[in-house]
Amino acid sequence: MKRKSWKAMTAAALTSSLLLASACTSNGKETETKQKHAKADLQVPVTDYTFDTAGNMFAYSEFELSGEPLAESLGLDLDVLDAQKIDKPTKFDYTAGIESYEYSEEAMYEVTEKSGLGLHLIHGPVAKRLAKNVHKTSDEALAERFYELADSVGYPREEIFRNMFPTFIEYASGDPHYAQKVDTSVYAENDDGTYVPVYQVDFQSLRWDRNKMEKVLTPSAYGGVFLKQALWAVDFLGGFHTVDKDEEIEAKTPNDDKDENIALGVSSADGMQGMILTEQIWNKLNYIRDHLFYNANNQSLTKASGSRYNPAHGFVYLPHKVQVVEDGNQLAPNVKQLQVEDPRSLLQDQWLMLWPASEFYGMTDQRPENKNQNPAFLAVFDGAPYPSAPKENLDADAANDISSTDPYSVNRDVLLQIFKNIDAMHFNPKIGAFVEEHDGKQQGKRVDTFQAGYTMEALRIFERAIDGLPVGYASGEDAKGLETPEGKRALELIKNQADFIIKHLMRKDGLVANGYVIGEGAEKSEPTLLAQLGAIRGLTAAFLATKDEQYRDAARKIYAAMDKHFWDKKLRVYRTGKGKIEYTPFVAGALSGVFRVALNNLNNTEADETVKALERETIISRYVDFYDRIIDGPSLKEGMQASEFWDTGDVYKKDDKSGNADHDHVPQVQAGHGKYGIAPILLNVEVKGK
Length: 690
Prior knowledge:
12% strand, globular, signal, 38% helix, 6-hairpin_glycosidase_sf, three-stranded antiparallel sheet
């Protein structure tokens, strides 16, 4: 992968301040568009400014995978990309390699380091234990821990961002408008006439309004963030780099970093970010395991038991909503009380936790029998800077497992308990499909096509991780696995659900029904785009996991029918339902993911495969139109992407007050929607013709 620093680096040193501070609108003129053709034929107004954490982080995870990794897999040399060279070398290359990828990365930092949308890392379980052990205050102990992490990757201590709000767990939703004026004053000037604004190195002015946050812990929300964190941590820490030249080098052994000129991480800056993400994940997992599981028998929150958990003795699972009552601290609120607001188990919550826990399992896996492990990851979890797992937890015998707080063990506890619950609570063996909810006592009766499809994809990643196969960007690669009992069961579940889609959900017109109600059959409602996307993702996952061509054939058939039924030739966008073109982050993320699997796995490759919709040129055209017309939108006040940052081309110049230096349709953060601007995240929109 091409390596780019996760922040604009400057020669000037920063004074580190890890604890936070408290929480200019420009009427920028549009001067030209990135497209030669006009976008005046459609309108894409925002319909809701609420930031949905689950939807956004899910969408940006798909955007990430449909960004640089996709462009590179199609033959692009990533080194030729330049954020300042719009649409070069081609519009698709720029859209995938710059926009899709960088939008994804920046949104993650907004949530986990800048906004305050959650609980501060100083209150994380691991951070509090550390502070107690070293007899220091939480903020002092966390500052020292960040210095330790910086040293492990060769990152200058003095260049750690100021006034961060690193979260260990995130809330369900919030208002993404900034609560105060963003500090765009000059921090450092560059030779090309641009400058680094203060807000890029000091996050104090980027807080969101805490009074407008939904202070609820929902698995799909903190799980969606976990997915973003895990994917980027795997990327950032998947190699070593030289200390003297900061050049990435391939990891050959777990001891390479013992060389004084070799450090952890693919670069100093990216390595530092990878360490911060891993620290956040580690604290999050300890909190989830020890505090957020719900015992259906006694109706109280409890601790997960992981490999020793047996659903037959009573369900212990992640409930849909846990209300957080904060302690009133204005700078870094802590939990005063947790209250279960909705005790149901929802399938979306479970798969959006299973997927990231599987990705992180692949990163932390230290089992001796796994011969596919990346030595760079083993070096990260060899005791410094992260503890290794006890040997009892690395063998195949669950009977001798011990409770541990190390990253591998705590993640495994969460992962296995969620997997067992998806099987026991959501899979209906009589019909061979996943139902969308369980109240703790009995299953519901509805199968949701979208949720079932993405459960299949999450199970595919789980099977790869538990069987010791590559995950992350390499999750499509072939390798020999360990063939564990859990992996075999995951494959059985995937195959059952795939067969159910083909037999019970596919219609005569090639589309799939939105759902299925046990005892009644497939739903007769007008099919939605979201259902088609879920089915395509799920069937493609089944094909990749089993190599059974019937699942690829079915996915291709649904894709072709979707393109025929939903494509609006006039507006060049997909309709989302009958008479509707309403895009949420979940729809946008799923569409981005389907474009990727269509290009990689479903496109015409044989002489007898002549479906026009599955020609690569057609898919790429649809991909570009989607990002251009719906994500970026036709004007500065329209489109899903609310604002943008340096990495997608919008630089700061003293003589440019437009708030849109690259003259596209996405404003700079301080010039976006609202009095003080808006974070670079996704909004709900409606598409209309003019």
